[in-house]
Every structure is written in C-alpha cells, then in structure tokens.
Amino acid sequence: MIITLDPEAPPEAVNTILEVVARHPKVTPRKHTYKGATETVTEIHLLAPPEIIQTIPEKLFADLPGVRSVVRVSTRYRLIGRHGNHETPGFEYNGVRFNERQVHIFAGLCAVDTRENVGKMMSALQGHGITTTRMGAYKPRTSPYDFQGLGRDCLPWTFELAGKYGIKIIAMEATHARHIEEIRSALEASGNATGVMLQVGTRNAQNFELLKQLGQQQTFPVLFKRGMGITLEESLNACEYIASEGNPKIIFCLRGVKTHLGDPHRNLVDFAHVPVVRRQTRLPVCVDPSHSVGRLDRAPDQLFDILHVIGQGFISGASMALVDFHPEPRTALCDGAQALRLEHLPLLLEYAHRVRKAYESVCELAAEK
Ligand code: PEP
Ligand code: MN
C-alpha cells in the first residue's frame, strides 16, 4: 500500500501516519521522498505479506490530514510503478532535470577514442546549447578481440574536456561495480567538472549483482537499457531491483530487441513500448535509435532511418534520445556504421524538436476529446 502526501502536508503528517502504522506490528513503513521540478512528494510505503495488507482498510489513512491518496499496489513494480495518474516527479542531477516532459538528447561517441574526437564532439554540442552527451569508456563487445574501450585511462581527459565545453552529464556504461568507483574518483579528481549517468547495457540487463550495486549508490542516476532478449516485464523488474536497493533515479531506454525479423536493421525497433512503459511506471523514457537501427541508410524522403525511429519514439511520448555520433565514422573503433557525423547534429536536433512539438499538440487533441 502506498500513501502519498500532499506537497503542502503539515510536517506532523508523517508522524501521524507512522503512529497508525505502529498499531499493526507486522507492517513495516518505508518513507520515500521524490523531488520534482515544482514540488517534493513524500510517500509512505507499507510493506507486509499480502494477507496482512488486505486486512488494513485504505480509509485508515485516507482521512488523515495531508494525505493525497492511498493506493493498494497490485502490481509488482512497487517503487517504479506509476500507481495512478499523478504527474511523475522525475529527478534532478548536476543541475539538469529529467522527467517525462523535458527533452534531452545524449549525442556523442559510442566509444571514446581520441582526445581530439571527444573535443570536436563536445565543442559541436556546446555550439548548439546541448549539455548532455554519451561517451563509452568500458565497452561490452561480442568478440574479445574487438576494441574494449579505453577504460579508466580516458576518464581524466574526457571529464576535463566535458568541463571545458559545458557538458553537464555524460551517459557512460558501467559493466562492473568497480567502474562506478573508478568513475567516482576520476570525477572527484577533475573537481567534478561534469556529471555521469551510469548506463546499464542491454547485455547486463539481468546482471543482478551489478543492478544492486547501482541501486546501492545514490550519487549517479542510471540509464537502463532494456534487455535485447528478454521481455519488457523482465526489464522493468530489473529497474525495480535498482530502485529497491535505494536509487530511484532511473531512465528507461528502449533500444530494440534481437531477432532477424528486424533485418536489415540491427535490432527490431521496440518503440511501440514507450506508452506501455509510461503507463506502467514513473520512469522517464529514452530511445536509442542508433543501436536499434545500426546503419546509416536514408529513406526516399532523404531522412535517415535513425531519424525516422527517433520520430517513432518521440511521437509515442519518449522525451530523450541516445544517439551515436562520430567526427569521422570511418575511423571509429566501435559502431562507426551507425554513427551520424557532426554536420548532421542540427538536423537531428531540429527533427527531434519538431516531432516533440507534434506529440505535444496531439496530446492537446486527446485532452479536448
Ligand atoms: C551502447 O549504448 O554503447 C551500447 C552498447 O548499447 P546496448 O547496450 O543497447 O547494446
Ligand atoms: Mn555502440
């Protein structure tokens, strides 16, 4: 059962609820606070076996001062679940707000290679007022003989350049718990020149020990990429692992699923799941058109397939995109075939902006009916 307080609830409201809970010794209350853009929402979650919770009437709490709603949680996504239709709070990190409305494009290198390329990418982003990027240092590769990423060695200069070009957040995959600490100490050494959003790669979507470690730290938000060979429900449960360990700052990223039925695309695009994730959870949704399409083909309308699928994600309500770029894709050490070039950046940004506007206008249409 989840008891949500009014943002203006009096300070004693929580204690009053806890006093009522204390009359039920088998029920454990857990308080969660979510800081939204305009309000901070407090929730008290009551944990107990279903047969005990069933015996507790909602009314016991619904009539207490400062209580906005009491929801009996039937879904398994206790923490990431939407539980009704409230505006979801999202979260803020390093001065940037992430929620279901705010649009962010994480455009950058699939894998950090040279200082020059990282600098060129970040400088181009700065030129367009973008403060979010993607930069892989630890790369999970299919073959052990492929480039594995520069690892911790590239962190100092990558963070330094991010500071120089005003980049506030770098989406960066961690494939092992020790990478979290390597990133943390390199960031500290850089004087916190930037921030990092820790990516869970599709191959690690069910690496439960890694998920727990990401949940046990609260410094870094997590960009979770859905597992390419598991159900959506299994991927959402993986996010619940992160949240249940204590870190609710999660973005859910769709990136396609593995099957040859998606040929010639690298993966079968799964962006029809955007509204499903939004309905079932409070997580802001991102789409990754690069790893789903995997190639730089253009349709007869001259738009890249990559843009078309960003459009599919955004018109369905996704508010973020993770996109591979490279100043010179032919020389990229990882995924060059799907990398857009820097000259495509204005087109991508304008395209994403216009589709998002179209989405907002169709939402108005639905609201009128
Ligand atoms: C990536 O974004 O760099 C990546 C490896 O993606 P995925 O885990 O979705 O394959
Ligand atoms: Mn890649």
Describe the structure.
- There is one protein chain.
- The chain has 369 residues and is of the alpha/beta class.
- Helix content is 33%, strand content 18%.
- It is built from 12 helices and 14 strands.
- It has helices spanning 13-22, 50-53, 59-62, 115-127, 155-164, 177-189, 208-216, 232-244, 274-280, 289-293, 305-315, 345-368, and strands spanning 2-5, 28-35, 40-47, 67-71, 91-93, 96-98, 104-108, 132-134, 169-173, 195-200, 222-225, 250-254, 285-287, 320-324.
- The chain has an 8-stranded parallel sheet with strand order 7-14-13-12-11-10-9-8. Strands 2-3-1-4 form a 4-stranded antiparallel sheet. The protein has a two-stranded antiparallel ribbon with strand order 5-6.
- Helix 8 (232-244) links the parallel strand 11 and strand 12 (250-254).
- Helix 4 (115-127) packs parallel to helix 5.
Would you identify the regions where 5 or more consecutive residues have pLDDT less than 50? Answer: none
Overall average pLDDT: 95
What is the β-strand count? 14
Principal-axes shape call:
globular
Radius of gyration: 21 Å
- Proportion in helices: 25-40%
Largest sheet report = 8 strands, parallel
Q: How many distinct helices? A: 12
What proportion strand?
15-25%
Which cofactors or ions or other ligands sit in this model? phosphoenolpyruvate, manganese (II) ion
